[in-house]
Amino acid sequence: MAVEDEGQGLRVLQSVRIKIGEAKNLPPYPGPNKMRDCYCTVNLDREEVFRTKVVEKSLCPFYGEDFYCEIPRSFRHLSFYIYDRDVFRRDTIIGKVAIQKETLQQYHNRDTWFQVQHVDADSEVQGKVHLELRLNEVITDGSAICHKVAARLIECQGLPVVNGQCDPYASITLCGPSRSEVKKTKVKRKTNNPQFDEVFYFEVLRRSWTLGRSTSVKMLYKKRFVDAPVTRSSSYNRKSHFEVEEEDIDKMEIRVDLWNNLTVRDEFLGELKIPLKVLRQSSCYDAWYFLQPRDNGNKSIKTDDLGSLRLNIVYSEDHVFPSAYYNPLRNLLLKSSDIEPVSASAAHILGEVCREKHEAAVPLVRLYLHYGKIVPFLSAIANAEVNRTQDPNTIFRGNSLTSKCIDEMMKLAGMHYLRVTLKPIIDEICDVHKLCEVDPVRLKDGENLETNMENLRQYVDQIFTAITKSGVICPTVMCDVFFSLREAAAKRFQDDLDVRYTAVSSFIFLRFFAPAILSPNLFQLRPHHPDPQTSRTLTLISKTIQTLGSLSKSKSASFKESYMALFYDYFNEQKYSDAVKNFLDLISSSGRRDHKMTEQPIVLKEGFMIKRAQGRKRFGMKNFKKRWFRLTNHEFTYHKSKGDHALCSIPIENILAAELLEEESFKMKNMFQVCQPERALYIQANNCVEAKDWIDILTKVSQCNQKRLTVYHPSAYLNGHWLCCKAVSEATPGCSPCTGGLPANIQLDVDGDRETERIYSLFNMYMTKLENMQEACGTKSVYAGPEQEEYSTFIIDDPQQTYKTLRQIIEAVQTLEQEHAQYKKDKFQKTRYGSQEHPIGDQSFQTYIRQHSECSTHSI
After folding, report:
1. Residue 278: C-alpha distances to residues 204, 242, 243, 282 (Å)
2. Comparing C-alpha atoms, which of 652, 615, 617 is closest to residue 631?
3. How much is the pLDDT for 473?
4. pLDDT tens-place string over residues 826-854
5. Alpha-carbon distance values, 458 to 382, 436, 820 (Å)
6. Highest mean pLDDT out of 169-178, 321-330, 552-561
7. All domains of the chain in start order, with CATH
8. Is the dihedral of CA 766, 770, 771, 776 positive or negative?
9. What whole-number distance in Å separates Cα of residue 179 and Cα of residue 218?
10. How far is CA 454 from CA 435, 443, 461, 511, 534, in A?
11. 250-254: long-range contacts (C-beta < 8 A, 24 or more apart)?
12. Which residues are bridge partners to 630 per DSSP?
């Protein structure tokens, strides 16, 4: 989901990757047992989008949790709340860390300790308000003027929904040095985007006097309030009450307080204050405002006694132009596999100039997967690396561009493969908690070493068998890449008969299965990081599987720990080596193809959500119920509870579209609809991120459906008509175009334009290195002596071809940079502070204005 600029079709796409490390020095529980059972949540403003596991009995809990999401809406704060779990009553908030959106880049991709702050209900605000102030003049008779302010509260957007409820109303207050007048709006039920459109009048000046000579009331008013500036001195004979009242008006303000109407005590949602002096420039002032925390005056809040939280945050905001803008750079990248030598290609050059190879690998792999060119690209760079390798024992051992790209390819293409192969056994290990410690030093009282060894051996056997029997379901793209690795290694080291196996096993075992076993949460096999005992068991299994798959000559010696070498003696080396070789032969065979060989369904996503009854029974109530939803590559089902039989099953071929549902349909947030031939199924997700995830994956699995809808109804059919278009027939075709996703031939959810934009950003960031590389090419072309030290880090096999590619890259990047600069200039000229997109109080926009002004000053 993106914010789109209507003028240029530019999309603004936000994402965040977070590692929640640990908390330390949390305040002790006020009781005999000082320890706490703590968990941490990630929130967009106040909307929870992720929750860690509970760490029991600790004031310094370690979480080690990773979270990634595409951010589907605007937000002001990325917040982290630390809770103390209480099984008897509601969990209590210990404190929070709130980071403003505009400051996220300050902490980009580095571990940072944040002080945990107190949570004050009056400071937990979000949302914005549209308010209009108007100055009205009323002359009551020949000797009096009544000066009134009309405050029109038009609407609010994005108010918080707390405990599933938001029934907002507003109080409008005229505040002055000696007066306060309050008026209230009506309560708007079940909405966090209330439409008020109510006007309130406040009298701010009423004075009467006797006029001398022929001066009229209107003339006096015009001279004193419109034409003349406000001063204490006056050229008029009479030092009237007007001067006193003018100063009073300057001290007056309109305050708007938003409240959630609750049964016991109304909840404060935020406030805004507008001084009346803004009406001196114009008699009508119309603007959007961000709600602010309540002003507590000089009240001090303790900030140093709640501990701290360690976080690593990577926030990205991509400004993506229409596809045609990226054609020159994209075409240059996509022909990289055809360039001879490949080291002179645009993709390889990106890997050379990036500080970390992973930076380049992620967008490159996603781009090549999107356009179906990943196999020739990986084959080309792998061949080049193999030809530079001198020792077969070190093949693909370094963190090269080849290794990082193949790692990323396996993560993207092999995620479902991992779920089918490993998830059932990983779930059993995490849920059963068998004792598997084989280090005698670590054994606890009552534990038996032989029993633990047997438990561990059984788990290793289960996982090893699952892996070596899974060759037939290994994704085709992985098999094609493994085939090219095998051929390149065998051709380069013809005397080493095992190299054709080790070239593949170094990826499939060392970089794919072993890391997934070690950290199942990072590969979406488990929702959270495992507990310490389970983590230790998974570590031992991962070490053993890695060694069994390595085909090293002396496997016992490969273990640093003597107890692991002793444990490995349990295994028949020849039996396991044969199984590994058979598996590697199968997944690296040139004739091996994926013929939809997965007869068993693959679970793609599951979890609790709330559904509305579909009305299949003629007189059934259309109420809302919590259900367990499960999506596989065969069907979409919901169940009363996890593990129960399905109450309803929707075949994938019956899913015609998956789209968001407008909030006004049922006065509920985060709702989406699954369109079927007869009716739509309405579902409420737990938050905006989860709703987007479900829509994306439902859209993806139904792409091949030839009956997919092209239009849909964004609102529900209620009370005999569609709320969106007012059509009375339920069979009326939709009134809005479907947002429906990728073409059917794209198997992965990749945005090619976005990945090209990210590659442009990397080239632009490392422009100095590109220019240095150009200079190195010139040096190599005319000087055949020893390399200069500053150029020796670059791989330049063909200086002339590399120089030509560099020139094309720089031209394409500079062209895109000009487009971005022009867009920023146009946006600066068109955007109004106080608009709906940039309300008053939008600090990110104020920062943008300041930066733009500084850039303009430097360019003069």
Report:
1. 14, 19, 18, 7
2. 652
3. 86
4. 877 777 888 888 888 766 655 655 555 55
5. 37, 10, 58
6. 321-330
7. 3-118+301-314 (2.60.40.150), 128-232+243-290 (2.60.40.150), 322-411+752-833 (1.10.506.10), 414-598 (1.10.506.10), 603-734 (2.30.29.30)
8. positive
9. 27
10. 10, 15, 10, 27, 16
11. 250/275, 250/276, 250/277, 251/176, 251/177, 252/174, 252/175, 252/176, 252/204, 252/276, 253/174, 253/175, 253/176, 254/131, 254/133, 254/149, 254/151, 254/172, 254/173, 254/174, 254/175, 254/202
12. 606, 637
How many Å apart are CA 37 and CA 531, to the nearest integer? 14
Residues pairing with 683 in the sheet:
611, 672
Confidence label for 73 from pLDDT (cuts 50, 70 and 90): confident
Can you give the length of the chain in residues? Answer: 860
pLDDT band at 237, cuts 50/70/90? very low
Which residues fall within 8 angstroms of residue 625, CB to CB, at 6 or more apart?
610, 611, 613
Distances (CA, A) of 799 to 347, 536, 780: 16, 51, 6
Q: What is the DSSP string of 310-360?
A: EEEEEEEEEEE--GGGGHHHHHHHHTGGGSSSGGGSHHHHHHHHSSSHHHH
Helix (H) or strand (E) holding 466: helix 449-468
- The single-letter DSSP state of residue 77 is E
Q: Provide φ and ψ at 218, rounded to 5°.
A: -65, -40
Angle, CA 626 vertex, CA 623 and CA 628 arms, to 5°: 135
Question: Is the confidence at residue 340, as pLDDT, over 80?
Answer: yes
- Rounded Cα distance between 347 and 381, Å, is 9
| Euclidean distance between CA atoms 228 and 235, whole angstroms | 11
Alpha carbon distance 101, 111 (integer Å): 17
- From the list 179, 232, 170, the residue with the least C-alpha distance to 203 is 179
Residues 495-521 have pLDDT tens digits of: 888 888 999 998 999 999 999 999 999
CA dist., res. 352 & res. 348, Å (int): 6
Q: Which helix (H) or strand (E) holds 380?
A: helix 374-388
Say if residues 131 and 152 touch (Cβ distance below 8 Å).
yes
Determine the average pLDDT of the residues in 334-352: 94
Residue 278's CB is within 10 A of a number of other CB atoms, namely 14
Three-state secondary-structure class, residue 407 = helix
pLDDT tens digits, 475-494: 889 999 999 999 999 999 98
Tokens of 657: 């579209």
The strands making up 657-660's β-sheet, listed across from edge to edge, are 646-651, 635-639, 624-632, 603-612, 680-684, 671-675, 657-660
Q: How many CB atoms lie within 10 A of CB 499?
A: 21
Place of tokens 């990289």: 336
627-646 CB burial, b ≥16 within 10 A, e <16: bbbbbbebbbbbbeeeeeee
Q: How far apart are CA 432 and CA 537, in angstroms?
A: 12
Model pTM above 0.85: no
Token couple for 686: 């737990």
Q: How far is the C-alpha of 345 from the C-alpha of 339, rounded, in Å?
A: 6
- Measure the CA–CA gap between 115 and 811, rounded to whole angstroms: 46
680 neighbors 700 (Cβ within 8 angstroms): no
Per-residue confidence (pLDDT) for residue 598, from 0 to 100? 41
Cβ contacts of 587 within 8 Å, gap of 6 or more: 471, 474, 478, 479, 482, 504, 508
Q: Which residue has the higher pLDDT, 404 or 31?
A: 404
Q: What angle do CA 695, 417, 361 make, to 5 degrees?
A: 80
pLDDT of residue 265: 84
Residues with Cβ within 8 Å of 4's Cβ and at least 6 positions away in sequence, in order, are 10, 11, 12
Task: Pull the structure tokens for residue 293.
Answer: 């925390």
Contact yes or no for 344/797 (Cβ under 8 A): yes
